[in-house]
Design goal:
Shape: elongated
Mean pLDDT: 88
Bound molecules: zinc ion
CATH topology of the largest domain: Rossmann fold
Number of helices: 10
Oligomer: single chain
Number of strands: 9
Largest sheet: 6 strands, parallel
CATH superfamily of the largest domain: TPP-binding domain
Helix content: 25-40%
Number of domains: 2
Radius of gyration: 19 Å
Order of helices and strands: HEHHHHHEHEEEHEHEEEH
CATH class of the largest domain: Alpha Beta
Length: 255
């Protein structure tokens, strides 16, 4: 379980990023809460506040029987996400990528704020709304068109064949995506940053257990990872912590 902030200072973290490079960031709901997206499972979560029943909304069999509840949720969710900006920490990871210090981002989030921040190497293990597919003919639909359809059609249907469209979000009863690529990235990582995830949603929660590099967990509250050598736990606000890390890294020329 997480301990105190003394484990890892922003300066130590900046040193690890600079010296080790090949950063892999595993991100969860906590990185997006500052952007205005409620934690799905937290006390302010959409599931709780808007009476959405996750079991029904994200169940693939329920969706195939009646996609209405999912699209009702999506209408609200997309309207919210469209207006949001990535957080400082999202942009910090983009900057690390541009500096060749980051291998990839592995995210559990479906809000695609990493893509919006400009990150290129993003593995969305729970999928996201960035692309959708027609379940009948396989036609791919981009985000803009999906948003248009979600606004104008109760149940978005394929323009080519009239089939049902499903965003590439991973539903209960579906396999997660990109797990082997994610595991490979963690295997090659020089530093694993776990950001805003309590590491309770499997299988991505198991990734840090296989890391051979230092693991730095920055999360509010308890984390489902045992203490161990080369594991550091920070219970802090992500944007504040990485604001300091970024400032320290900026002190050194061409970091
Ligand atoms: Zn189609």
């Amino acid at each position: 379980m997480g301990t105190t902030m003394n484990d890892m200072t922003p300066r130590f973290c900046a040193d690890l990023i600079r010296e080790n490079g090949r950063v892999v960031a595993l991100t969860g709901a906590g990185i997006s809460t500052a952007a205005g997206i409620p934690d799905f499972r937290g006390p302010q979560g959409l599931y709780v506040t808007r009476q959405y029943d996750a079991e029904k909304v994200f169940d693939i069999n329920a969706f195939l029987r009646d996609p209405g509840p999912f699209y009702e949720f999506s209408r609200d969710f997309l309207a919210k996400v469209e207006s949001l900006e990535p957080t400082f920490t999202h942009r910090f990871l983009t900057e690390l990528e541009e500096l060749d210090l980051l291998l990839c981002v592995v995210t559990q989030n479906i809000d695609f704020l990493h893509q919006k921040a400009g990150s290129k190497g993003v593995l969305s293990v729970h999928g996201d709304y960035w692309t959708s597919h027609c379940l009948a003919c396989g036609l791919e639909i981009g985000f803009e068109l999906l948003c248009l359809k979600v606004r104008s059609e109760a149940i978005p249907l394929c323009d080519a064949c009239g089939g049902l469209i499903k965003p590439d979000v991973v539903f209960f009863g579906e396999a997660v995506k990109s797990m082997s690529e994610a595991a490979e990235a963690v295997n090659e990582a020089g530093l694993l940053l776990v950001l805003g995830s309590s590491l309770t949603v499997y299988p991505s929660a198991s990734l840090p257990q296989h890391a051979r590099c230092p693991v730095v967990v920055v999360n509010r509250g308890d984390v489902g990872l045992e203490q161990g050598p080369n594991r550091y736990f920070v219970d802090a606000d992500l944007d504040e912590f990485f604001g300091e890390v970024s400032e320290i890294m900026g002190e050194v020329e061409d970091f």
